[in-house]
Model the fold of this input.
Amino acid sequence: MKRIAILIDLELSNKSGGHVKFWEKICESLVQDNLKIKIDVFFLGKVKKKIKFNNFINFKIKKPILSSKILRIIGIDADFTDLFPVNLYLFFELKKYDLIHTTDQLFSMSKTAKLASLIWKIPLTTSYHTDTSSYTKYYIVKIFSYLPSFLSSIFIQKIKLHQKISENQKLKIQKYFHFCEKVMINFKSLSEEFSKIKKNNKIINLERGINKEVFRKIKINKDHFYKKFNIPQKNKVLFFCGRIHELKGANFLAKIHKNLIEKGLSVTTILSGEDIHGDKCKKIGGHGLIITDYLNQDEVANLMNICDLFVFPSLYETGPQVVMEAKSCGALCIVSPKGGGRKISHNFDGIIINKYIVSEWVKVIYNLLKEKKKISKIKNNLQKYNTSSSWRDIFFNVFYKNWKKVLNS
Done:
C-alpha cells in the first residue's frame, strides 16, 4: 500500500485557522472510507505525538524547531509556523513515503520536503492555501509603524521594502510550483497572483468543500437566538465569522456598525471566532456590537440562517470557507473582490464592494437592507444555484485522483 505524507506547517489546535481546518475537514469526511493508501498528516504542536485518526490516516504532531511564536513581541500574531530552514529529523522520516504533498511553499516543512524529494527521488505535489505574501506586506508595515517615523519614511515609503519582500515571496512560490509534479491552486488565485504561470496539465483547480449536513438552509426559531444574544426584535443582524482580526476586516466592520447606528439603523453586529482584536472592535463599534468566542459549527450555521447579512470584509483570501458556508445556509454575503469575492458573483449570489472605504460599505448595506425585492432575488439564486462540493468530493476529485496519476507515471 502506497504511503503519502501531507505536510501542514501550522499548529493543530482548536484555534487553528482555515488552512488547518481544510485538512481536518478532509480527514473527517474520510472516516468511513476504506482507502487504498496510507496517509500521515504532519502538523505542528506543543508536544510531539501520533494520533490515529482511522486505519488509513494518522496525525503526526511535530514540535517546531524555531516557532514563529517568538515574533509575537513585535506584533506578528499570525498562526504559528516553523521558521527554521530545514528539519533534518523530518528529512530522514520522509524517506519512507511514496509521495510527499506540501500545503505551503515557503517555510520549514515545505523546504525540507523539496530537499527530500530531490535526494530520495520522491514525487512532490503542493497546494496553495494562504496568501502569505499579502500577509507579509501587512506585517512589515505594522512593524515599522512601531518604529521612529523616519525609518518608516525610508523603508516603507521610499524603498518600499514591504512590496519587495512580498514580490520576492511570490517568486519563490512560483519556483516551488515549477519543481512540483502537480500544483493544486484556485484558478482565481492563479490568474490574480501568479499570472505568469500558464494553465497546463500540472495545474489543478483547487476548491473548498462544505459539510452539507450542517451548512444548509433550515427554518430557525429566531426568538431563541434573539434572547440568547439579547438582541431587540426590531434589529437587523449582521454576522461575521472568522478570526476577529484587522486582517480579516473585523475592525473595518466595527466602523461600519458604528456608522450604521449613527445613520439611525437599528442593527446588531455579531463577530464570532478567535478573539485577537475583539476589544478594539468593541471600542470602535460601541453599543450593539457583540463578540463571541468560538461557536460550534451548528451554532454558526444557525446564525448564518437567521442573519440579515453575512458581512466579510477580509481583503486576503484564497478560498473563503465561511463565505461558502454562509451561501449554503442562504445568507446574503457582502464581500471585497479579493476576499470573499472569489466565491461571489456580484448581484447574483451576493454583493461585492470594490472600494475599501467605510462610507461606501455603509451606503451599500444601508440601502440594501431596504431593498426587499433585491434581497429576495439573491436568496432565491442561492437556493437554486448553490453547487458546492463536499469535502469528500474535494479529496477524491482534486487530490486522490491526481496523486494516483503521479504514482502511476
In short: The chain has two domains: 2-209+391-408, 222-385. The domain at 2-209+391-408 is CATH 3.40.50.2000 (Rossmann fold).
